[in-house]
Write a structure and sequence with these properties.
Blueprint lengths: L5 H30 L5 H5 L1 H18 L3 H24 L1
Helix pairs in contact: 1-4, 3-4
Length: 92
């Protein structure tokens, strides 16, 4: 979408951010559930799964015209935060 003003750009960014946060909240619910299925803390950390997700995200970024490097950075940080949260859930 071609914007005609900085205000319009910011409005669209705000709309996208709202969607991202809504999806993060949804993802959070699933991550919390996942902890109950894990057998160990190593299972929570799931290094192989993390790398599989990163590979998939990089491919999707290319498919959608996004930077694979930015997508990977965002996902590594997000996954790290979710692993910390999931470890707390697992230890309950």
């Amino acid at each position: 979408m071609k914007c005609s003003s900085l205000e319009e750009v910011r409005e669209n960014i705000d709309r996208i951010d709202d969607n991202i946060i809504r999806l993060l909240a949804e993802r959070t619910g699933y991550v919390k559930q996942a902890a109950s299925f894990k057998k160990s803390e190593d299972g929570v950390r799931a290094a192989d799964r993390v790398e599989a997700v990163i590979n998939k995200v990089r491919e999707k970024a290319l498919e959608y015209g996004a930077s694979p490097d930015i997508a990977e950075t965002v996902y590594r940080d997000m996954i790290s935060g979710f692993i910390g949260m999931e470890l707390k859930e697992y230890r309950k």
